[in-house]
Amino acid sequence: MSLAKKLLVEFTLEAAVTRRYLASVPFDKADFQPHEKSEKLGRLAIHVAEIIAWWKESILHEELDFIDFEPKNIQSTAELLTYFDALVEATKTVLRQVTNKDFKGNWTMRHGEEILFTLPKEQVVRIFCMNHLVHHRAQLGVYLRLLDIPVPAAYGPSADDYDIILARPFGSI
């Protein structure tokens, strides 16, 4: 199985989990931040969604320059999910079309003349795209917990799911 096919399986699973988290974001609380150094909830949610676009960028191109980057202006959960779903489909399309050869070579992230990092493309999709996504999704889960919003399951039941399981009569699981 090619690297792209393996990544497509992982990506699809992680995208489904991520979508559940994004669907839980209340945009009426978009300005919530647990600490003055923390990102606001709305911006964090948009960042989680936009990380999906980096897959396509890192596979098809040799660099990404954030000098003129403007985050998407999203004002509702519905807009966020529409944006996320489009990015997921674009990434799946790329992963279905590329070969192992497309993961060869280096990829650079820069901010104008400042090079933030250069890594082999295969590492970029693992570290910069996948791990970065999981990191910020977990951060989003903390925000949801602090707002007393049920946290979706990721790799097994969340504490909220566990409470539901325990409330069921024995044998009905």
Structure notes:
This protein has 173 residues and is mostly helical. 56% of the residues lie in helices and 9% in strands. The chain contains 5 helices and 3 strands, in the order H-H-E-H-E-E-H-H. It is globular, with a radius of gyration of 18 Å.
Structure summarized in a few sentences:
The protein has 173 residues and is mostly helical.
List keywords for this structure.
173 residues; mainly alpha; Four Helix Bundle (Hemerythrin (Met), subunit A); 3-stranded mixed beta sheet; globular
What is the fold's blueprint, element by element?
Elements: H1 3-23, H2 41-60, E1 63-65, H3 77-97, E2 106-111, E3 114-120, H4 121-146, H5 159-167
Parallel strand pairs: 1-2
Antiparallel strand pairs: 2-3
Helix pairs in contact: 1-3, 1-4, 2-3, 2-4
Number of self-contained structural domains: 1
How much is the average pLDDT? 92
In N-to-C order, the SSE pattern is: HHEHEEHH
What coarse outline follows from CA principal-axis ratios?
A: globular
Structural class determined from secondary elements: mainly alpha
Low-confidence stretches are: none
Helix amount: 55-70%
CATH class (first level) name: Mainly Alpha
Indicate the CATH architecture.
Up-down Bundle
CATH homologous superfamily, by name? dinb family like domain
* CATH T-level topology: Four Helix Bundle (Hemerythrin (Met), subunit A)
Question: Major sheet: size, sense and barrel closure?
Answer: 3 strands, mixed
Strand % is 5-15%
Radius of gyration: 18 Å
Number of strands: 3
- Please tally the helical runs, counting DSSP H or I stretches of 4 or more residues: 5
